[in-house]
Amino acid sequence: MRSPVSLCTGVTYDRSSIQRWLQSGNATCPATMQPLSSTDLVPNLTLLRLIRLWNDNAPNPNPNPSAITSTLSSSSSSSSSSPSAAVKELLREARDAADPAPALREIAGILEEDDEDEGEVDKDGLAAAVAPLLRVEGAEAAAARVLALVLAADGADKRAVAAAADPGASAAALARVLRTKEMGPRVDAARVLESLIAACGSESEAAAVAEAPDLIPELIRLAGEGDAPSAAAAAAMGASPGSGRGRGGGGGRWCGAARWARRRGFWGAPRRRGRRRRRRR
Protein backbone atom coordinates (compact mmCIF):
# COMPACT_ATOMS: atom_id res chain seq x y z
CA MET A 1 0.00 0.00 0.00
CA ARG A 2 1.73 3.16 -1.19
CA SER A 3 -0.58 5.93 0.01
CA PRO A 4 -3.30 4.78 2.44
CA VAL A 5 -6.45 6.90 2.38
CA SER A 6 -9.82 6.48 4.07
CA LEU A 7 -13.31 6.96 2.69
CA CYS A 8 -16.17 8.48 4.67
CA THR A 9 -17.15 4.91 5.65
CA GLY A 10 -13.90 4.60 7.63
CA VAL A 11 -12.41 1.90 5.38
CA THR A 12 -8.83 2.50 4.19
CA TYR A 13 -7.60 1.76 0.68
CA ASP A 14 -4.56 2.46 -1.42
CA ARG A 15 -5.04 5.83 -3.10
CA SER A 16 -4.46 4.71 -6.68
CA SER A 17 -6.79 1.72 -6.31
CA ILE A 18 -9.72 3.61 -4.80
CA GLN A 19 -9.28 6.44 -7.30
CA ARG A 20 -9.63 3.96 -10.16
CA TRP A 21 -12.76 2.58 -8.47
CA LEU A 22 -14.33 6.02 -8.16
CA GLN A 23 -13.28 7.17 -11.63
CA SER A 24 -15.02 4.10 -13.06
CA GLY A 25 -18.32 5.58 -11.92
CA ASN A 26 -18.76 3.66 -8.69
CA ALA A 27 -20.39 5.55 -5.81
CA THR A 28 -20.16 2.90 -3.10
CA CYS A 29 -17.53 1.67 -0.65
CA PRO A 30 -15.98 -1.49 -2.17
CA ALA A 31 -15.78 -3.26 1.21
CA THR A 32 -19.16 -2.36 2.70
CA MET A 33 -21.05 -1.43 -0.49
CA GLN A 34 -22.52 1.52 1.39
CA PRO A 35 -23.39 4.57 -0.73
CA LEU A 36 -20.77 7.30 -0.37
CA SER A 37 -22.02 10.64 0.91
CA SER A 38 -18.61 12.08 -0.01
CA THR A 39 -15.78 10.92 -2.25
CA ASP A 40 -13.11 12.88 -0.37
CA LEU A 41 -10.04 10.78 0.42
CA VAL A 42 -8.50 11.43 3.83
CA PRO A 43 -4.83 10.39 4.29
CA ASN A 44 -4.45 7.69 6.94
CA LEU A 45 -1.23 9.00 8.47
CA THR A 46 -1.28 6.49 11.32
CA LEU A 47 -1.19 3.57 8.90
CA LEU A 48 1.37 5.38 6.75
CA ARG A 49 3.69 5.69 9.76
CA LEU A 50 3.23 2.00 10.58
CA ILE A 51 4.11 1.05 7.01
CA ARG A 52 7.19 3.27 7.16
CA LEU A 53 8.21 1.83 10.53
CA TRP A 54 7.86 -1.72 9.26
CA ASN A 55 9.73 -0.89 6.07
CA ASP A 56 12.60 0.74 7.96
CA ASN A 57 12.98 -2.10 10.46
CA ALA A 58 12.18 -5.19 8.40
CA PRO A 59 15.04 -7.74 8.56
CA ASN A 60 14.72 -8.48 4.85
CA PRO A 61 14.54 -5.63 2.35
CA ASN A 62 11.43 -5.36 0.27
CA PRO A 63 12.01 -7.43 -2.90
CA ASN A 64 10.22 -4.78 -4.95
CA PRO A 65 11.07 -1.36 -3.46
CA SER A 66 9.66 0.44 -6.49
CA ALA A 67 6.18 -0.60 -5.36
CA ILE A 68 6.33 1.86 -2.50
CA THR A 69 8.54 4.54 -4.04
CA SER A 70 5.85 7.22 -4.07
CA THR A 71 5.41 7.33 -0.29
CA LEU A 72 7.98 5.05 1.32
CA SER A 73 11.76 5.00 1.05
CA SER A 74 14.67 2.99 2.33
CA SER A 75 15.78 3.37 5.93
CA SER A 76 18.50 5.80 4.89
CA SER A 77 15.94 8.25 3.50
CA SER A 78 12.53 7.97 5.09
CA SER A 79 11.49 11.58 4.53
CA SER A 80 9.64 10.75 1.30
CA SER A 81 6.96 8.98 3.38
CA SER A 82 6.45 12.04 5.55
CA PRO A 83 3.44 14.33 5.44
CA SER A 84 5.60 16.67 3.36
CA ALA A 85 5.76 14.07 0.59
CA ALA A 86 2.02 13.47 0.84
CA VAL A 87 1.40 17.20 0.52
CA LYS A 88 3.60 17.40 -2.59
CA GLU A 89 1.71 14.52 -4.18
CA LEU A 90 -1.62 16.14 -3.35
CA LEU A 91 -0.45 19.46 -4.77
CA ARG A 92 0.34 17.75 -8.06
CA GLU A 93 -3.15 16.27 -8.02
CA ALA A 94 -4.72 19.63 -7.25
CA ARG A 95 -2.90 21.38 -10.09
CA ASP A 96 -3.77 18.66 -12.60
CA ALA A 97 -7.40 18.13 -11.58
CA ALA A 98 -10.37 19.99 -13.01
CA ASP A 99 -11.63 20.29 -9.43
CA PRO A 100 -8.73 20.80 -7.00
CA ALA A 101 -11.00 21.06 -3.94
CA PRO A 102 -10.80 17.38 -2.81
CA ALA A 103 -6.98 17.37 -2.88
CA LEU A 104 -6.88 20.72 -1.09
CA ARG A 105 -9.18 19.40 1.65
CA GLU A 106 -6.81 16.47 2.11
CA ILE A 107 -3.88 18.86 2.45
CA ALA A 108 -5.80 20.78 5.09
CA GLY A 109 -6.45 17.51 6.91
CA ILE A 110 -2.73 16.77 7.00
CA LEU A 111 -1.93 20.22 8.37
CA GLU A 112 -4.64 19.92 11.02
CA GLU A 113 -3.81 16.39 12.16
CA ASP A 114 -0.38 16.73 13.73
CA ASP A 115 1.54 19.88 14.62
CA GLU A 116 4.87 18.04 14.60
CA ASP A 117 4.28 16.75 11.10
CA GLU A 118 3.14 20.18 10.00
CA GLY A 119 6.63 21.43 10.77
CA GLU A 120 8.01 19.20 8.01
CA VAL A 121 5.96 20.95 5.34
CA ASP A 122 7.48 23.83 3.38
CA LYS A 123 4.88 26.42 4.36
CA ASP A 124 6.07 29.20 2.08
CA GLY A 125 6.26 26.87 -0.90
CA LEU A 126 2.82 25.49 -0.09
CA ALA A 127 1.33 28.98 0.17
CA ALA A 128 2.83 29.99 -3.16
CA ALA A 129 1.48 26.84 -4.83
CA VAL A 130 -2.03 27.05 -3.38
CA ALA A 131 -2.57 30.81 -3.84
CA PRO A 132 -3.31 30.53 -7.60
CA LEU A 133 -5.86 27.76 -6.89
CA LEU A 134 -7.81 30.27 -4.82
CA ARG A 135 -9.14 31.65 -8.09
CA VAL A 136 -10.51 28.31 -9.34
CA GLU A 137 -14.29 28.41 -9.14
CA GLY A 138 -15.59 25.90 -6.60
CA ALA A 139 -12.23 25.51 -4.86
CA GLU A 140 -12.13 28.90 -3.12
CA ALA A 141 -13.12 27.68 0.36
CA ALA A 142 -10.77 24.68 0.28
CA ALA A 143 -7.85 26.83 -0.87
CA ALA A 144 -8.63 29.48 1.75
CA ARG A 145 -8.60 26.80 4.45
CA VAL A 146 -5.13 25.60 3.46
CA LEU A 147 -3.80 29.16 3.25
CA ALA A 148 -5.31 30.09 6.62
CA LEU A 149 -3.63 27.07 8.25
CA VAL A 150 -0.30 27.94 6.64
CA LEU A 151 -0.52 31.57 7.71
CA ALA A 152 -1.37 30.56 11.28
CA ALA A 153 1.73 28.35 11.57
CA ASP A 154 4.86 29.59 13.31
CA GLY A 155 7.47 31.00 10.97
CA ALA A 156 5.17 31.35 7.97
CA ASP A 157 5.99 34.21 5.63
CA LYS A 158 2.70 36.05 5.24
CA ARG A 159 4.02 37.72 2.08
CA ALA A 160 4.23 34.38 0.29
CA VAL A 161 0.49 34.37 -0.37
CA ALA A 162 0.46 37.83 -1.90
CA ALA A 163 3.54 37.09 -3.99
CA ALA A 164 1.70 34.32 -5.86
CA ALA A 165 -1.78 35.84 -5.85
CA ASP A 166 -3.40 38.31 -8.20
CA PRO A 167 -4.79 40.84 -5.68
CA GLY A 168 -8.02 41.72 -7.48
CA ALA A 169 -8.93 38.21 -8.62
CA SER A 170 -8.00 36.67 -5.28
CA ALA A 171 -10.06 39.25 -3.39
CA ALA A 172 -13.04 38.47 -5.61
CA ALA A 173 -12.61 34.76 -4.82
CA LEU A 174 -12.44 35.48 -1.09
CA ALA A 175 -15.56 37.63 -1.38
CA ARG A 176 -17.40 34.62 -2.80
CA VAL A 177 -16.40 32.63 0.28
CA LEU A 178 -17.50 35.46 2.56
CA ARG A 179 -20.94 35.39 0.94
CA THR A 180 -21.51 31.77 1.98
CA LYS A 181 -23.35 30.73 5.13
CA GLU A 182 -20.67 28.57 6.78
CA MET A 183 -18.77 30.44 9.47
CA GLY A 184 -15.49 28.49 9.28
CA PRO A 185 -14.75 29.23 5.61
CA ARG A 186 -15.75 32.87 6.08
CA VAL A 187 -13.28 33.31 8.95
CA ASP A 188 -10.59 31.59 6.87
CA ALA A 189 -11.27 33.98 4.00
CA ALA A 190 -10.95 37.01 6.29
CA ARG A 191 -7.63 35.78 7.66
CA VAL A 192 -6.21 35.18 4.19
CA LEU A 193 -7.51 38.55 3.11
CA GLU A 194 -5.64 40.21 5.98
CA SER A 195 -2.31 38.91 4.65
CA LEU A 196 -3.25 39.75 1.08
CA ILE A 197 -4.08 43.36 1.97
CA ALA A 198 -1.08 43.86 4.23
CA ALA A 199 1.27 42.77 1.45
CA CYS A 200 -0.18 45.14 -1.15
CA GLY A 201 2.75 47.22 -2.32
CA SER A 202 0.83 50.08 -3.89
CA GLU A 203 -2.39 52.05 -3.74
CA SER A 204 -3.50 50.46 -7.01
CA GLU A 205 -3.18 46.95 -5.56
CA ALA A 206 -5.02 47.96 -2.39
CA ALA A 207 -7.74 49.58 -4.49
CA ALA A 208 -8.08 46.42 -6.61
CA VAL A 209 -8.70 44.43 -3.44
CA ALA A 210 -11.09 46.96 -1.92
CA GLU A 211 -13.14 47.14 -5.12
CA ALA A 212 -13.93 43.41 -5.18
CA PRO A 213 -17.74 43.09 -5.34
CA ASP A 214 -19.41 42.90 -1.91
CA LEU A 215 -16.09 42.43 -0.11
CA ILE A 216 -16.33 45.27 2.40
CA PRO A 217 -20.07 44.74 3.14
CA GLU A 218 -19.41 41.04 3.76
CA LEU A 219 -16.53 41.82 6.11
CA ILE A 220 -18.76 44.21 8.01
CA ARG A 221 -21.44 41.50 8.22
CA LEU A 222 -18.84 39.03 9.50
CA ALA A 223 -17.69 41.56 12.10
CA GLY A 224 -21.04 41.34 13.84
CA GLU A 225 -21.12 37.56 14.27
CA GLY A 226 -19.08 36.76 17.39
CA ASP A 227 -15.65 37.38 18.85
CA ALA A 228 -13.51 35.28 16.48
CA PRO A 229 -15.27 36.42 13.28
CA SER A 230 -15.18 39.99 14.55
CA ALA A 231 -11.44 39.84 15.20
CA ALA A 232 -10.75 38.32 11.77
CA ALA A 233 -12.85 40.92 9.98
CA ALA A 234 -11.35 43.79 11.98
CA ALA A 235 -7.81 42.60 11.23
CA ALA A 236 -8.59 42.39 7.52
CA MET A 237 -10.08 45.88 7.34
CA GLY A 238 -7.24 47.36 9.37
CA ALA A 239 -4.42 45.70 7.42
CA SER A 240 -4.02 48.09 4.51
CA PRO A 241 -0.56 49.66 4.30
CA GLY A 242 -2.07 52.73 2.68
CA SER A 243 -4.63 53.58 5.33
CA GLY A 244 -3.01 56.89 6.04
CA ARG A 245 -2.83 58.07 2.45
CA GLY A 246 -5.29 59.75 0.13
CA ARG A 247 -9.01 59.29 0.17
CA GLY A 248 -9.21 57.76 -3.26
CA GLY A 249 -6.92 54.79 -2.63
CA GLY A 250 -7.71 51.33 -1.38
CA GLY A 251 -6.31 52.15 2.07
CA GLY A 252 -8.86 54.92 2.52
CA ARG A 253 -11.69 52.54 1.69
CA TRP A 254 -10.50 50.00 4.25
CA CYS A 255 -9.95 52.61 6.92
CA GLY A 256 -13.36 54.12 6.29
CA ALA A 257 -15.04 50.70 6.45
CA ALA A 258 -13.32 49.92 9.74
CA ARG A 259 -14.44 53.21 11.27
CA TRP A 260 -17.99 52.70 9.99
CA ALA A 261 -18.27 49.23 11.52
CA ARG A 262 -16.68 50.27 14.81
CA ARG A 263 -19.03 53.23 15.21
CA ARG A 264 -21.98 50.91 14.80
CA GLY A 265 -20.73 48.50 17.41
CA PHE A 266 -19.81 45.58 15.13
CA TRP A 267 -16.66 45.06 17.22
CA GLY A 268 -14.65 46.76 19.90
CA ALA A 269 -15.99 49.00 22.60
CA PRO A 270 -19.37 50.42 21.68
CA ARG A 271 -19.56 54.14 21.17
CA ARG A 272 -20.64 55.98 24.26
CA ARG A 273 -23.66 58.07 23.81
CA GLY A 274 -24.07 61.12 25.97
CA ARG A 275 -27.26 61.88 27.74
CA ARG A 276 -29.63 64.06 25.91
CA ARG A 277 -29.91 67.46 27.42
CA ARG A 278 -33.34 68.67 28.20
CA ARG A 279 -34.26 71.84 26.53
CA ARG A 280 -34.96 74.70 28.84
CA ARG A 281 -38.35 76.16 28.51
From TrEMBL:
<feature type="compositionally biased region" description="Low complexity">
    <location>
        <begin position="73"/>
        <end position="84"/>
    </location>
</feature>
<dbReference type="Pfam" id="PF04564">
    <property type="entry name" value="U-box"/>
</dbReference>
<comment type="function">
    <text>Functions as an E3 ubiquitin ligase.</text>
</comment>
<keyword id="KW-0808">Transferase</keyword>
<dbReference type="InterPro" id="IPR013083">
    <property type="entry name" value="Znf_RING/FYVE/PHD"/>
</dbReference>
<dbReference type="GO" id="GO:0016567">
    <property type="term" value="P:protein ubiquitination"/>
</dbReference>
<protein>
    <recommendedName>
        <fullName>U-box domain-containing protein</fullName>
        <ecNumber>2.3.2.27</ecNumber>
    </recommendedName>
</protein>
<keyword id="KW-0833">Ubl conjugation pathway</keyword>
<feature type="region of interest" description="Disordered">
    <location>
        <begin position="58"/>
        <end position="88"/>
    </location>
</feature>
<dbReference type="InterPro" id="IPR045185">
    <property type="entry name" value="PUB22/23/24-like"/>
</dbReference>
<feature type="region of interest" description="Disordered">
    <location>
        <begin position="233"/>
        <end position="254"/>
    </location>
</feature>
<feature type="domain" description="U-box">
    <location>
        <begin position="1"/>
        <end position="61"/>
    </location>
</feature>
<feature type="compositionally biased region" description="Gly residues">
    <location>
        <begin position="241"/>
        <end position="254"/>
    </location>
</feature>
<dbReference type="InterPro" id="IPR045210">
    <property type="entry name" value="RING-Ubox_PUB"/>
</dbReference>
<dbReference type="InterPro" id="IPR003613">
    <property type="entry name" value="Ubox_domain"/>
</dbReference>
<dbReference type="GO" id="GO:0061630">
    <property type="term" value="F:ubiquitin protein ligase activity"/>
</dbReference>
<comment type="pathway">
    <text>Protein modification; protein ubiquitination.</text>
</comment>
